[in-house]
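My current task is to audit a protein record that another person submitted. Please read both lines and tell me whether the tokens look consistent with the sequence. Do not assume that whoever made the record got everything right. I have pasted the whole thing underneath without changing anything:

===
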Amino acid sequence: MKSRVVIIDDEVKLLKALKKALELEDFEVFDFSEPGAGFEFICRNDVNLVISDIRMNGMSGIELLGKIKQRKPDLSCILMTAFSSVDTAITAVKLGASDYLLKPFELADFKNAVYKVLKNRVRATPVAGEKELIGNSEMMRQVHKIVDSISDTSSTVLIYGESGTGKELIARSIHHSSRRKDKPFIAVNCSAIPEQLFESEMFGHKKGSFTNAYADKYGLFKEAEGGTLFLDEIGDLPISCQAKLLRVLQDGIFKPVGSTQQLKSDVRIIAATNKTLRKEVAAANFREDLLYRINVVEIELPPLRQRREDIRELAVFFIKFYAARHDRQISGGSEDFFETLRTYDWPGNIRQLENCIERAVIMKRSGELRAADLNLPDDNDLDSIVQFDGGQPLAETINRIEENIILQALETADWNYSRAASVLGLTRQSLHYKLKKYGINKDG
């Protein structure tokens, strides 16, 4: 079967030349000069590789990469640009780009990059669910026991856990172990959907149903048909959107915006949050009936600092995974490397650990990783980040802690939002939501 490649670039002449070059190599190529149209195609079709320019009208290649990785995290991507810097390259690779090409380039170099990425994809892609099953601590054994018991059902699942603890990975593990494994797994960050676009994003819309609705669009429920829809950060969903979601979960039907036809929904719902939803219900921020609907089975993921015995096993996996993905000759880690990982508190949990190791692998290139290769904040003491004064509600104190941790991450990342979000175990959209919440900006 031919490998299917999507090329996105608003420089039409180059776009056509690259398409022709790959077609001569017997690839099936789909070209788009508009990144939004390319992204829609990627979401709806099976694709092996995406090649995109970085500077484009309407959506940058970095932004496009982030959106692709949210929907299809294992999809390989190559970014191209005529405007190069080390920071841009590192940001692209950290966000999941498999390679990075500087324009102008020779067609031979372009084709070599394509073959290399596709070869590494076969070698580096883990067995479905492999990441999710790492961890033999007592806490994680209990989690795996629950996952095993519900995988062959279609019950709704609610996963609790701090940011970066692996909620989406557990959701994927449930999906890959279920009867729905051959159907789509669609992940959506609820806090990133504008309230006014919720129905369009979730249920789709018809052409002309509102301004800028230039074509029919499938919603996430349609894209996930027969499979699993993962609703991350459901605790951040506005009350008005909660009511619309509840109707679909209760009745099993939905209607695209501008349509008179009701469609049946065959989707398993797995939701996740870092909030205590029962407290949100008490504060009138979350619907009690929706909580009952999504909380059929509850899974609570422990933070990484509470299962330090799993850190070495996770680290070994990430070293092997990213050494293969980025074509690095890394032999492993030294004892001081693993001890540093074990004693660090990991406020960003597994996501931060993964990001830290990926960066070390990228920068080291070959040999054994050592403690000096880690780029960890100097301050590993939460007490030095914020002091508890007493007399404050718990929520206020937690918000103050979160605000200070976000500020520290931004300073560490030189106010690069993508890098800060990655360290914190957040999506870029979630980080912007929290920046707005706390009124944080670079100018103070």
Q: What stands out?
A: The radius of gyration is 22 Å. Residues 322 and 358 are 6 Å apart (CA to CA). The longest strand covers residues 76-81. The domain at 131-300 is CATH 3.40.50.300 (Rossmann fold).
